[in-house]
Amino acid sequence: MARHPVQLDPGNHDDPGAGRCLMEHVSVLAGEPFRAWPRCTHPAVAALATQVNDRCSPEGRAALLGRAEALARADSDDPALTWRLVGLTAEATLVNRPYDRSATRRLARARRSRRLWGAALPGPLARRLPRWALVSCGLAALDELVAAIHGLVAVAGPPGSPERDIALVALLDTVLDHVLDEAGGVPAEMPAPTDTAIVLKELVA
Q1: How remote is the C-alpha of 182 from its chain's centroid?
Q2: Which residues contact 160 (CB under 8 A, 6 or more apart)?
Q3: 3: DSSP letter
Q4: Alpha helix stretches (DSSP H) within the chain
Q5: Between the CA of residue 84 and those of 46, 74, 144, what are the distances in Å?
Q6: What residues have CB less than 8 Å from 32, skipping those under 6 apart?
């Protein structure tokens, strides 16, 4: 399998010559200033993608490159999006470890918080608010999202393993599926979520 000319690295970088993480690569694709928080991507999605990038092996990060164009379109006007991502991450943890208590509690908290936001800001009202107001609604839940990702990493496999890579890339695919479906569809260039294991096996072969 041919290697992509771009190589993703963990962490943040000063400029493209020093390397790039997944979201910094997205900022380049989108024609934005070089940074890990491009405006084209919802901050909660960017936070999750950054965690996935940093916790994947080099082979796993190579598989993430195919998600960059989708990430450049992954914005949302859902004020409860961060809590939705917390719930999706908790569900992924429960797939790997059924009955995990922390994940079960986190999933219940995410569902409860989404209902509260839905009641406080129904769709028609949310769509009339400026983007900064909608984005700020979920900032308080970013720590909860990072904690949820830590919970998934703890049960998905040892560091650098294909099992961990598959779980993390699959989580990102699920998130993109939800966000882009809401926005009008996943770009054709993005590998299907069910192809994640195949992509990783090809990379490590």
Answers
A1: 15
A2: 57
A3: P
A4: 22-29, 43-55, 58-64, 68-71, 81-96, 101-120, 123-126, 131-137, 142-156, 162-183, 196-204
A5: 14, 14, 11
A6: 38, 39, 40
- Lookup: tokens for 43: 């901050």
CA pair distance 63, 191, nearest whole angstrom: 9
Q: Cα(149)–Cα(88) distance, rounded to whole angstroms?
A: 10
Q: Which residue has the tokens 């990102």?
A: 172
Find the mean pLDDT for residues 183-199: 48
Q: 126: Cβ–Cβ under 8 A, 6 or more apart, which residues?
A: 77, 78, 79, 134
Closest CA to 150 of 67, 74, 86: 86
Between the CA of residue 142 and those of 6, 48, 82, 110, 119, what are the distances in Å? 29, 9, 7, 12, 21
Every domain of the chain and the residues it spans: 42-52+77-204
Q: Which residue has the higher pLDDT, 134 or 199?
A: 134
pTM of the model: 0.85
